[in-house]
Each structure stands twice: as structure tokens, then as C-alpha cells.
Design a protein that fits this description.
Layout (H helix, E strand, L loop, with lengths): L10 H6 L15 E3 L3 E3 L13 E7 L7 E6 L14 H10 L6 H14 L3 E5 L8 H11 L4 E4 L16 H12 L8 E6 L2 E6 L8 H11 L5 E4 L7 H10 L12 H4 L18 H4 L4 H11 L4 E6 L6 E4 L5 E4 L7 E7 L1
Parallel strand pairs: 3-13, 4-5, 5-6, 8-9, 9-10, 10-12
Antiparallel strand pairs: 1-2, 4-13, 7-8, 11-12
Length: about 350
């Protein structure tokens, strides 16, 4: 299924690519060598048309002491494996996924070059890699070392094989220590002040915000600085909700903090999930728990919150999140799209 407005893969079709819709093949002599010491699986289908990087301009009035620029990337979904992996499942996964996202690394490199040219801060909101592999982690380490970065993780930062297990806090913990070594800031909660603006990065990758993050957020608010909140999954916002629900055919919206009464109206899956796999139902795994509801309620009431930056849905969107803040959803960098932001 494709977005009728843009002709690009929407998130539901994108996720299906990890479910074996293409025949997977091993890596051999025909595979293309990639920078960073890895190889990408040879594509099994015609690649989508290549186009220059789109840097959509934004102006965010955040109360900066001095104006500054930033480039916001999200969902690059870099896919690379190499001989150090010794894991045929990783190779097969790369073979299935790569044809859908062949240009993530190229567009990420363009964004980095643009940021360096304009002396801009690089902000990322998750899914720099498509899954955990030795080659993927080495490559992002090189990119993070090449410029000034700050951001948060996405769900794919901790993905091992795509759908092989329930993705929750325990699943994330099994990869967190390994992955964190390659990223520029803490992936559970981090903050950084730039020209009087407090950038706060949180973890909401599985549509949940842990209780301890609320206590940390309260400390950030107590600093008295204007805040730009960064997360991977967008928060519930009526305009965004309506668009995503329509795009999914009434099945879900891929947002954090959707009210229970709205989830109750979502379309049931066409086929019931097998016993023990009920967690795959969006009405289950996208439902907010009590700590998440408390976090959303708290940040919506904060006048210091000026903007929310996020990704995940692979489509641009901007609109009102709270009486005080706008939410900006960045499209997928693997599709050649990102934001060029002027903070004032």
C-alpha cells in the first residue's frame, strides 16, 4: 500500500517488508561493497526513483538567546551486514529489507554535509539503523563522530530480527548496553542546552513512557528554560490522529498516548492472532499505560514546552500538540526527506 499523495511506502507497508514478502538470499560476489566495511544485500526488486535530498524549512520560535540552525533527521533505516555477523538470519533480513530502503545512508550523508556547511546542529529522532548488526553500529558511529549530534532512539535501534519476540522494556534492555556505546548521548533520557533552549530527549519507542522519565522531566522543567522535546513516536494530536487513522483504514495511528476511548473504536485485525501473540494487535501494544498517560498530561500543561520533534510514521506532519507547543513529525530520511530548522 502506498501513500496516494506521495507515492511512497506508508508505515504499514513498510513493516510488512520485514515479514518475508520478498525472497531472501545470501550475500555473495555480486553484493555491493559499502563504506564502513560492510556490504548491503543485493536488491531483489527495482529500486524506487532516486531524487535529491529534500530539506523542508521550519522556523520554531523557541525563545533562543541567539538564533541557530539545526537539521532534523529521522528513520534513516541503514541496512548493512558483513562477515563478522556469522548469522544467516541477519543476512536474510537485510536481503528482504534493503530493496525498500536502499538510499538511507546516502541521504544521511547529504544531511550531515548540509549541517556541516551551515554550522547546524544535527538532531535525530530514532531508527538510524534498521536492526542491530555489527556493520550498522560501526557505520552510525562514524556518522555520529563526523558532526555535532543530539537525539533519541527509535524502536529499530533495538530490533534484532523483526517480530521474533515481543518488543517491550525487557526486549530493549537486551540490546541497550551494546547499542548505547555507539550513540552520542544517553538513549533513555538526555538533555542539552543550546543558546538558552533546553533540548530533552526521551524514550517512547514502544508507545510507552516509563514512570522515571516523568520525574526527570520535572527536573528539566524546573530549570526554567524553554524546552524542545524529542521522541521517536509522535504523541496523540487530533489532526495527526485523524490522518493516520484514515491512512491505516481505521486500524491504528502509531502514536503515544491515544485515549482509550479512541482505541476502542479501531478496526479489529482481519484474522485473530495466535495464542500468546495477542500483543501484536495494535489495540494492545499501542495502548498507553498509566505512567504514559501521566507523562502526556504533565507535558501538555507546561508553558515552557515550545515544540515536539519526532518521526516514526515516515510522513511529514505539523500541528498543535498543546496550548503552548506545536508537534513536528519528520518524514523518513531513507526517502530523502528531513527538516532544516531555524530556532529563534
Amino acid at each position: 500500500m502506498r501513500d496516494s499523495a506521495t507515492g511512497i511506502l506508508n508505515r504499514r507497508a513498510f513493516l510488512a517488508a520485514g515479514a518475508g514478502v520478498l525472497l531472501a538470499g545470501g550475500l555473495g560476489a555480486a553484493d555491493k561493497a559499502r563504506p564502513g566495511g560492510g556490504v548491503a544485500a543485493a536488491p531483489a526488486k527495482k529500486l524506487k526513483r532516486f531524487a535529491p535530498l529534500e530539506m523542508r524549512p521550519l522556523r520554531i520560535e523557541a525563545g533562543a538567546s541567539k538564533p541557530f540552525k539545526a537539521v532534523h533527521v529521522s528513520d534513516a533505516h541503514i541496512i548493512m551486514v558483513d562477515a563478522t555477523e556469522k548469522d544467516s538470519r541477519k543476512v536474510n533480513l537485510a536481503s528482504r529489507r534493503y530493496p525498500h530502503m536502499p538510499y538511507g545512508e546516502h541521504y544521511l550523508a547529504e544531511a550531515v554535509m548540509a549541517a556541516r556547511r551551515d554550522d547546524a546542529l544535527l538532531l535525530y529522532t530514532g531508527d538510524m539503523i534498521d536492526f542491530v548488526s555489527n556493520a550498522n553500529l560501526r557505520l552510525v558511529e562514524r556518522y555520529f563522530g563526523s558532526a555535532d549530534w543530539f537525539g533519541c532512539s527509535g524502536d529499530h535501534e533495538f530490533t534484532k530480527y523483526m517480530g521474533e519476540a515481543k518488543e517491550d522494556a525487557a526486549y530493549r534492555a537486551s540490546s541497550l548496553e551494546r547499542v548505547s556505546k555507539y550513540y552520542p548521548n544517553d538513549l533513555t533520557f538526555a538533555s542539552r542546552v543550546v543558546n538558552g533552549v533546553n533540548f530533552v530527549a526521551i524514550d517512547d519507542v514502544y508507545y510507552k513512557v516509563a514512570a522515571e522519565q516523568l520525574a526527570l522531566m520535572e527536573k528539566e522543567v524546573a530549570k526554567g528554560l524553554p524546552i524542545v522535546l524529542m521522541c521517536h513516536v509522535p504523541f496523540y494530536a487530533p489532526g495527526h490522529y485523524e490522518r493516520e487513522l484514515e491512512m491505516s483504514g481505521g486500524a491504528c495511528t502509531f502514536e503515544t498516548g491515544v485515549p482509550d476511548e479512541l482505541i476502542a473504536t479501531w478496526r479489529a485485525p482481519d484474522k485473530p492472532f495466535a495464542k500468546g501473540m495477542e500483543w501484536r494487535d495494535p489495540r494492545v501494544h499501542q495502548r498507553a499505560d498509566e505512567p504514559t498517560k501521566e507523562f502526556v498530561k504533565y507535558i501538555k500543561a507546561q508553558p515552557l514546552l515550545k515544540a515536539v520533534l519526532c518521526g516514526h510514521n515516515h510522513r511529514y506532519w505539523q500541528g498543535r500538540f498543546s496550548p503552548y507547543a506545536m508537534q513536528y513529525v519528520c518524514s523518513a530520511t531513507y526517502m530523502g526527506q528531513c527538516y532544516a530548522i531555524d530556532f529563534v
